[in-house]
Amino acid sequence: MDQKTYETGLRIRSEVLGKEYVENAMKSADDFNRPFQALLNEYCWGSVWGREELPRKTRSMLNIAMISILNRPHELRAHLKGALTNGVTRDEIREILMQVAIYGGIPCGVDSFRIAREVFAELDKA
Amino acid sequence: MDQKTYETGLRIRSEVLGKEYVENAMKSADDFNRPFQALLNEYCWGSVWGREELPRKTRSMLNIAMISILNRPHELRAHLKGALTNGVTRDEIREILMQVAIYGGIPCGVDSFRIAREVFAELDKA
Amino acid sequence: MDQKTYETGLRIRSEVLGKEYVENAMKSADDFNRPFQALLNEYCWGSVWGREELPRKTRSMLNIAMISILNRPHELRAHLKGALTNGVTRDEIREILMQVAIYGGIPCGVDSFRIAREVFAELDKA
Amino acid sequence: MDQKTYETGLRIRSEVLGKEYVENAMKSADDFNRPFQALLNEYCWGSVWGREELPRKTRSMLNIAMISILNRPHELRAHLKGALTNGVTRDEIREILMQVAIYGGIPCGVDSFRIAREVFAELDKA
Amino acid sequence: MDQKTYETGLRIRSEVLGKEYVENAMKSADDFNRPFQALLNEYCWGSVWGREELPRKTRSMLNIAMISILNRPHELRAHLKGALTNGVTRDEIREILMQVAIYGGIPCGVDSFRIAREVFAELDKA
Amino acid sequence: MDQKTYETGLRIRSEVLGKEYVENAMKSADDFNRPFQALLNEYCWGSVWGREELPRKTRSMLNIAMISILNRPHELRAHLKGALTNGVTRDEIREILMQVAIYGGIPCGVDSFRIAREVFAELDKA
Question: What is the pLDDT of residues A13-26, one digit of tens each?
Fold first, then answer.
């Protein structure tokens, strides 16, 4: 493990997905998923999100599109919130999902629009 | 059909994918695929790409990520060229594909990197 | 937008998915998803379902197969009901899902059979 | 193995995909893929295609849609030819692929239209 | 139907997924899904799981990987339990899911790790 | 980067996919794909393949199943050869692909059997 990349990753992950969210993930880790949490922090958040060649806002936009197409609702919720944190506006999310619906197909678009509206409603209530 | 949306779509498609490419597609259309070409122009390129809420460069970045994950090499080649036309740099394409490899999986990343290098080699030879 | 295609689409969508279902979708639309609802009505339901070259029953059969494979349970529920409305029998749905299980794989078949049985149970209770 | 189902399957497979095509597959089978050829004949073609609750034409239409979305060009070619044999017209194939493009996404539609045109061109030349 | 293969399949399915689970599936079967249950028993569990060339433990490991990537949570839960029955340890499941995360992408890994932990928690409570 | 993990990864990758194959990949790397090659070596081959909790033979079996389902023929070829190197027999590959065909669907099985036979034919000629 590269300690510095790990720590950069953990910090970026907390800044994007929320400090509380990530602290919970780390605290609840056990022997079973600890190596996976380490992989997430070091590679996904350190070695890729940590690269400065793309702004975080762009990375969030790409993730909304990719995770919609990958059909992973749990992760989509987390990354929709992360996208708002990274400065993607709701109007921009709409535009991304319009494009997702054309390229990934209408059922993919319907699901992602519904999930985004649920996330927004939850945030507006809080 | 909405004639104006169709024409906007045809124009944007030509600007992004290349005039020659699109003229060939339209000329070679026959009774079998003409309705699909019309749908492409009006719907995909007019009603979605024609929306001005996202810059074309961003749309191209999203497409590289989505089409990589959708596993459609022919379309990926066309949209990699379109991305360069829309101002996405080769360095930015690399960053997108690094992120694709993490979220869409390593075999997806390997394929997209290989295809991108083939497209660049072809362009460098021309 | 082509007003006539939009209206044809809205009408067909209501006839297939149910008037109440579609009225709810349209009433609850907000600035965020209104452009997507318009796209759904005009393109998906107007420009494609509105084409008369295939009977609605056939389109419903294709959708059950496609949406099963696309792994989109929400949409599958809506289109299973729509299929019954369009004259696809429960026996025909079984046959489609047997074929889905072979071509899309057993886990896809298991999920779609379970969802279809839930939809039938819900309808039988109403 | 159920010998009768196997033989029914082998016969239907030959009628749909072509006698020559299937004879080649069976003749070239070796120890490695013989059990898979048996599974194909008995399970896919005997136990599912052999069910008489759906006409072969409908099964072919479903297959064109499913195999397009599954992104399997080799099988799509074989089943496009089989569909023509089973009485699906080229106009009906166009309609299926228009619907595929909306539900499975534009890149899926582009690929399937291109493949269908190649298959038609090949048949027209023969 | 080959009665012997069917019975072998039903037996193996009960041994792997649990007698109670399979008895419930068979008892609750109706005219709609009975042919699918027969297909499951004869082909999936009889003709493939019944082959002795791979040990059940290996088949379970393959299934965890495949069903994770196929994105089918219901089936994944059943096969995670079946894997434990077949002698796959929790540590081995972790290793499989680490590899799934790399090849199938991070969101796939996150989902499968969450589901596995839920299954383990449920078993530990029982 | 963790230099030790990188070097372990590069060594394992060479042992599995072949020294010549990997040397070519590294030599032909340029500014565009060098960071991806580094990620491959460190992350995929070092941090995951480098874990000793699963034997290489098992990892190869999982990869054949996963990459078949992910529909990535280039990578499947490389990993079929790697599997033979890691001690997976041709008979075992057949069994894996039989299971792939049932869980991932018949078209996936057909493609993977064809590719495996091409790889074997190529190796037998060499």
Answer: 999 999 999 999 99
The one-letter code for the residue type at F55 is: P
Q: Is the pLDDT at B126 greater than 90, yes or no? A: no
ipTM of the complex: 0.96
Interface of E with F in 35-94 (CB under 8 A): 43-44, 48, 51, 53-54, 58-59, 61-63, 65-67, 69-70, 91-92, 94
Using CA atoms, how far apart are residues A67 and A59, in angstroms rounded to an integer?
A: 12
DSSP states along F53-115: TS-HHHHHHHHHHHHHHHT-HHHHHHHHHHHHHTT--HHHHHHHHHHHHHHH-HHHHHHHHHH
- Give the whole-number percent of chain E exceeding pLDDT 70: 100
Average pLDDT value over all residues in chain C: 97
pLDDT given at position D57: 98
CA separation for the pair E1, D50 (Å, rounded):
12
Mapping DSSP onto H, E and C, the string for E34-68 reads HHHHHHHHHHHHHHHCCCCCCCHHHHHHHHHHHHH
Name the E strands within chain C: none
C-alpha E29/C-alpha E34 separation (Å) is: 5
CA distance B125 to B117: 12
* pLDDT tens per residue, range F65-107: 999 999 999 999 999 999 999 999 999 999 999 999 999 999 9
Tokens of C53: 């070259």
**Whole-angstrom distance, CA of residue C86 vs CA of residue C58:** 9
Q: Say which amino acid occupies A90.
A: R
Tens digit of each residue's pLDDT (9 = 90 or more) over B21-44: 999 999 999 999 999 999 999 999
Determine whether the interchain pair D62/C102 forms a contact, defined as Cβ–Cβ distance below 8 Å: no
Q: Which of A17, A6, A2 is nearest to A67 (CA)?
A: A17
At E89, phi and psi to the nearest 5?
Answer: -85, 165
Tokens of F65: 């199943």
Q: Which residues in chain D are contacts of E52 at CB distance < 8 A?
A: none
Taking a C-beta distance cutoff of 8 angstroms, is the pair E83, E68 a contact? no
